[in-house]
Amino acid sequence: MNEITFFQRFESDIVAGRKTITLRDASESHFTPGQQLRVGRYEDDVYFCTIEVVSVTPVALDELTDEHARQENMTLPQLKEVIAEIYPGLNELYAIVFTLVSKA
Ligand SMILES: CC(=O)Nc1ccn([C@@H]2O[C@H](CO)[C@@H](O)[C@H]2O)c(=O)n1
Fold first, then answer.
1. Which stretches does DSSP call E strand in 1-104?
2. Would residue 28 show up in a list of annotated catalytic residues for this protein?
3. Given 19, 28, 63, 92, which residue is catalytic?
4. Residues 51, 99: contact at Cβ < 8 Å?
5. Taking burial as the number of CB atoms within 10 A of a residue's CB, which of 13, 52, 96, 97 is the most buried?
6. In ligand 1, which atom is closest to the CA atom of 25?
């Protein structure tokens, strides 16, 4: 059973260690530092790696910086566009910082 999912298009960045945060809504803000999570692909729920949660921090959409974007392996405009597609109209996000523990 997977505990968090990512869109398949981010799998390669995550397993390569290029993507080290994810921005989620309140429904996924309950993870705690030190927790290890089995990660699956959103589209088919296939397990692809395990991550460890480093921190979970509330961040407003308009507080996002180039540093958040760098940790997503994107530019800030790209990141804001992705968030607008996934979470239209949402301003209250949670930055989940993670490290890669193991790959499938
Ligand atoms: C069901 C569901 O919400 N799945 C999500 C939600 C978010 N994200 C990624 O987190 C970052 C900021 O949102 C971007 O890289 C997003 O693509 C994701 O991969 N899968």
1. 4-6, 21-24, 36-41, 47-60, 92-103
2. no
3. 19
4. yes
5. 96
6. 3
Written as one letter, the residue type at 41 is: R
For ligand 1, atom 8, which residue shows the shortest CA distance?
A: 6
Return d(Cα 17, Cα 93) in angstroms, integer: 22
Atom 11 of ligand 1, nearest CA residue: 22
ipTM of the complex model = 0.91
CATH T-level fold of 3-103 = 2.30.130
Mean pLDDT of the region 25-40: 98
Q: For 48-81, write each residue's pLDDT tens digit.
A: 999 999 999 999 999 999 999 999 999 999 999 9
Q: Which tokens sit at 22?
A: 């994810």
The residues spanned by each domain of the chain are 3-103
Distance CA 32, CA 48 (A): 21
Alpha-carbon gap, residue 9 to 6, rounded angstroms: 8
Phi, psi (deg, nearest 5) at residue 102: -160, 155
